[in-house]
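Human:
I keep going back and forth on a fold encoding question. Comparing notes only helps if you start from a blank page. Show me how you would write down a chain together with its backbone fold. Write it directly below this note and I will take it from there.

Assistant:
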Amino acid sequence: MSQDDGLELARARYGLFAVLASNLAIAGVAVVGVWRLDGDKAVIVGVLTAAFTAVSSMTTAYLGIKAISNTARSIALGERHERTAAAPEPAPAASGAPGSAPAPRAP
């Protein structure tokens, strides 16, 4: 494992930890809010809707950013490998005598 892979693994771990911790905090606040409202159904629905929206948007944002980051990283690594690869092989020499017509292509 290279140093870049270790850094990427640490970023993924701590990013996921931050998202999970914030989602748990949002859920905790929603549960306490619902518990303290003592049955006012309209307000409870509002609190739960806001909590669900916050959790889903936080998780979706993290996963979207992580997917884009992984895609960009793989493209960058692919380009680096292409640049460091050996030069392309030369085209094969044409068969036949010099000046002869090329062979017809098969349909």
Notes: The helical segments are 3-36, 41-84. The chain is about 75% helix and 0% strand. Residues 82 and 96 are 34 Å apart (CA to CA). The mean pLDDT is 82.
